[in-house]
Records
---
Amino acid sequence: MAYVRKDAGTLTGAEKRRFVKALLEVKRRGEYDEFVRMHIEYFPSDGEEGLRSAHMAPSFLPWHRQLLLELERALRRVDSSVTVPYWDWTRDRTTTSVPWTEDLLGGDGRRSDHQVTTGPFAHREGNWTIKVNVTDDSFLTRDLGRSREPIDLPTSDDLKWALDDPVYDVAPWDSTVTRGFRNKLEGWDTGRDEGSLRNHNRVHRWVGGAMLGGASVNDPVFWLHHAFVDLQWYRWQRRHRGARYLPEKPPGPRDEQHGRIVARHQKLPPWDLTPDELEDVGRIYRYA
């Protein structure tokens, strides 16, 4: 029977406590840091050589869907009632709203070094030491809204712009495409300033701190953010019945993207799964 992922803003006090407790236990067991390592390993951009499976590519959505499922399975081994909630950043848009509360993820980082000092993931609580990172920080950091150069979170209109596109992705299947649902949701733009970032990417920039770069998994909000991104794929599939993951077939040997992206029926590293197998997860979970 499919379980339910809920809006973080609707969680009861007991549901918040159980989610936090399970997350801290996964961290204590050492499993959590493996997710951080994996995300760093699969962070290469389309300016680098080799296969891109996690970012700047069509498989951005199924790759993160499977990562979410792996984390959720780890949580449910601790407490079978727990699922990953989602953060609706089109509605909960302030630095004090859900999920930035003392009983869930804690709040913003302090001005001096952006260290998070409130909530269960604050370093001083002793349960969330950063062990795998791309910087020397051993504590969780945030800079909500980017205090020195403020930016806003994406809006419902930004999401609509992505959801309205009936095509999943288009050639050359990277961060430069201006059409296709995938990149409109992932949020790369041809502009070079950070103001050009859209949807998923803009949220990472708005949270700041640990959420910038390959080690973004170190902030638990990563999962709530990506659950909401995954929900958009779920919604897009229902809005455009029959629309599928693209490309269906891998680019040919003369194509510059040959061997650099994952087609619908190819294996999605590091798992023995294809994007095709991850398009329909209704038997596993649904969204409230």
---
Amino acid sequence: MAINTLTDTDCRKATPNDGKLRKLFDGHGLMLAVLPSGNKVWRMAYRNAGGKQQTAVIGPYPLIGLKEARERRDALRLKLVDGENLRPRGKARPSITLSQAIADYWAGRNDISDGYKANALRALEMHLVPTLGKTLVREITKETLMDALRPMDEAGLSVYVRRVRMWVGQVLDWSVQHGHCDANPASSINSKVAFSRKPREGFAALPLAEVHPFLDRLALEDEIQSVLACKLLALTWTRTDELRRMTWAEVEGDVWRIPGKRMKKGREHLVPLSTQVLALLAEMKLRSRGSIYVFPNDRTGSRPMSENSILYLIHRIGYKGKMTGHGWRKVGSTWANEHEYNSDHVEVQLAHKDGGVRGVYNSAEYLKQRRVMLQAFADWLFKAD
């Protein structure tokens, strides 16, 4: 069996596995458990005298480094060789009730707003404390936790139950770190599978007949950043998150090259820029304040604009429930199809998963045709002669 396989770099860079518990093994039972919260704790798996698989908690990383963790592992192994029981019968291990753990954990969360903390505490007290509040955290299992969460799901609170699972999971992660329990049963509950989902609702979008009245109303606003961003979203058919994270380095003449890491499907995407877009970008360049972002955050140029800036603007001018930033993609698609543009060109411009008749596409596919289509749409949108 290979031993001492981990390195300090492995331990330092280890992250959770898609929000789930991850175990990095070093040999002779030693493992670094990376909790869903990102916290890390050393554990050692072993078999007791009866052959039953058990786990000893060594302590948190990086307070206990790799070298010391190995030394403690070897010390525990020597105790096993000497016949010592790492869990002597009759010796009570420290634990606290879930109610106490909830109170202690959230009392120490000074990095969040009072409102967020109050919401979390109220949810846990309403839905978990009545059934599990007096239970020692060491005795909580996946089954008992699911029994407490399931009524919320059955009542149609499919989003809320996921939040409660997350909040109690944080409490149990804290409990593991403080030695009140050995594992977090919430981390083994896959919310995507365990709970139901509400039917997805489409993003609100205006019919074509109402687009120009919307733009007329938008024109009454000062040309603040959110207004310009809304117009650019309309002209490019991109997603809101792609636009708000747009950087000047991605603008290559009359093409916007969006890297794959920021695209929903993970593929680089080229967006041809109409003359109207180039004019908007020239205006934004004058306001850039040296930021790498085309639409920087109002408070600091080191971050992009808020994800809700465009939506708040749309709500403020009276179109709440009628239009969204994402709705411009539907507007563009509807216009293009009504004007009989090639559906493959439309789908590639929207960066949908099927990229035309071949099923996949390179970033420059149909670029010439898409440029003509987007320029025609821009001329229609802003009534160019």
---
Amino acid sequence: MPAKGKHRRPKSLRLTRTIAVAGTGGAALALPLMGATGAQAATPAAAVAQHTQKSATVAPAAAKAGASKTYAVKAGDYLAKIADDQHVSGGWKKIYSDNRSAIGSDPSLIHPGLKLSLGAKAAAPQASAPAKPSAAKPAAAKPAAAKADTASTATKTAAVANGSGYTLPVDGATIGTNYKVAGSMWSSGYHTGTDFVVPTGTTIKSIAAGTVVSAGWGGAYGNQVVIQHADGRYSQYAHMSSLSVSTGQTVTEGQQIGLSGATGNVTGPHLHFEIRTTPDYGSDIDPVAYLRSHGVAVG
């Protein structure tokens, strides 16, 4: 048996060699087929690798597009001006909200050199694939009440655009010092406007449509805005903590022009409001009487 086994092993080896040689001899015919099969098998892996590489390239670009921008405050800057110049979506309120810890409780107190984050720019809208017919839903009919409300809003907007409406400069305020009250603390010898007592940060509105002729620092008046109206009169809003408009800008009735504060020569936060016949100090008329003559209930 051992001898027989020794004879069978070399035979088996020869057979193996024969098969190997045959395989080698047929390699020229088999290689192209195997190469094609290998290429097909590698295609999904290559696609995944290519997609991964592309995603890795696009991701940093997208992150860069949405990165926040840092702005260094310059002399003469205020939040509304920065928002307008830098095209910040959300305006000065967005800047203040994002930088409140750096600015503090008063949005008007920003100093040259202060670093402000202007936030990420909105990504450009991407074209979406057309909706499949099966997924499309018929538009819901607009309720009659909604249509009426839209028409009402359009009418109001047209009225505002024509400068026909007047409103109070602040909501829910009480009157502090009235017009023409005498006192040595005023250079004219009397109070040239009416004070509306409101806390810092209250919205200040334009009483009617008009054009901003002055917006900025006004000495004893602090941050102020002066607006010329269609009837030739000028309204002045003083001691504001921040401004939302700039010189030359057109405003509508009720549009926010800034926030109340205590800038300039004051003893506490309030809105000093004047009506003038010219844009300058010393041409004042009774502001309450003026508002009432235009149908505005005061006090």
